[in-house]
Known about the structure:
The protein is mainly β and about 160 residues long. The protein has no helices and eleven strands.
Amino acid sequence: MTEAIRSDYEVSSEGAVRHWDIPYDDLEDVTPTATLPAALTSRIDGTQLTGTILVVDADDEMAVIDFTHSMVYKHDVRNVLTYSEGAEATWGAIDIGDPIFYDRSATMPTNAKLSTSPLDSAGDANPLFGFRVPANDDDVAALGDATASTQSIAVMQIVGD
């Protein structure tokens, strides 16, 4: 029997792609930059919706953000684990599967919006952004160590729990 693909059937390996226009005023960082992570404001710390900025429209003050669950992007991630009195206190290697958080700390380096710390420098909860995944077959080693560093790694973003 010959196999046939039905003409009324569609399939996507990525699932539903979700790109939405978000006003700058609804973002944690009101000066968004394309390719960087974003978090929407929320009444409850640690519950912010997060995604990756695709396009910035300065004229209309809108950003197009990819909120697609399980989408993988390469991001700069700070290896900070804890803060003490508003400053980075401890650091560690970032391994595959480690949680990555959207970190609102003022101490974060330029273009690094993500870290491995579940709390920001003020002690408030950071929203979970996603998890470190390998960018390719050779990207399996833990990156960074017990000293402060920023690593460019593949992050699988999540949306909700």
